[in-house]
Specification:
The chain is of the alpha+beta class. The chain has three helices and seven strands; from the N terminus they run βααββββββα. It has two domains: 30-84; 90-169, Roll (PH-domain like), CATH 2.30.29. Helices cover 36% and strands 25% of the residues.
C-alpha cells in the first residue's frame, strides 16, 4: 500500500486506478527520434548551408564538398522527420487495454478493437503497426517503435509484436 510521502519503486512508471503497474511497449527514444533529432539536424543543416554560402561568397569560388555536406544534412533531417512523424509517443499495456499517448492526446484503446498487428523488420528496434476495426482519434491505425529492452537479441524480431498478435487473435484477449 502506498501512502503519502512513501517512495515508489523506479520500475513502476505509470499506474492505473488499481495501482497495477503497466508495461511499456514503446521505446523511450520515440520523442528523441520524432521531435528533437530532426529539428536539431535541420538547424545544423541550415547552419551548414549559411556557412557554406558565406564561405563561397567570401572566397569567390564554388565548393562541391560544402554544398554536398549541407544537402546531405538536410536530406537526413527530412528523412527523420518523414519517417517518425506519424508514430505515437507512448504505448502502455494495461491488460485488456492499451494506453496510447501522442502529444496532449491520451487514449485507452481496448484490445478488442485491434484488427491486426504488424511489425516492420527493416528497422531495429521494429516499428509496430496496430490496425483498428473502426476509426480512433489517432486514425484507423497507429505506429510505434517497440521498446528495445524487451527484445531477445540483436535481431529485429519483437516479442511485443508476438504477444500482441496472440492476444488480439484470442477472443478473450489474453
Amino acid at each position: 500500500m502506498l501512502t503519502h510521502g512513501s517512495r515508489q519503486p523506479r520500475s513502476w512508471l505509470i499506474f492505473d486506478v488499481s495501482l497495477k503497474a503497466m508495461r511499456r511497449l514503446s521505446s523511450t527514444d520515440t520523442r528523441l527520434l520524432k521531435r528533437f533529432l530532426p529539428n536539431a539536424m535541420l538547424v545544423v543543416a541550415v547552419g551548414a548551408i549559411i556557412s557554406a554560402a558565406a564561405w563561397m561568397v567570401h572566397s569567390e569560388r564554388f565548393s562541391r564538398e560544402a554544398t554536398f555536406a549541407a544537402v546531405a544534412l538536410m536530406t537526413v533531417a527530412v528523412f527523420l522527420r518523414a519517417n517518425y512523424a506519424d508514430t505515437v509517443d507512448e504505448v502502455w499495456d494495461d491488460g485488456d487495454t492499451l494506453v496510447v499517448t501522442s502529444g496532449a492526446v491520451k487514449l485507452r484503446i481496448p484490445l478488442s478493437t485491434v484488427r491486426q498487428v504488424t511489425a516492420s523488420t527493416l528497422r531495429n528496434p521494429p516499428e509496430i503497426t496496430l490496425t483498428f476495426h473502426s476509426t480512433t482519434p489517432f486514425g484507423t491505425e497507429i505506429r510505434f517503435i517497440a521498446d528495445p529492452d524487451t527484445m531477445r537479441s540483436l535481431s529485429p524480431h519483437s516479442t511485443i509484436c508476438d504477444d500482441l498478435r496472440r492476444r488480439v487473435s484470442n477472443p478473450e484477449n489474453g
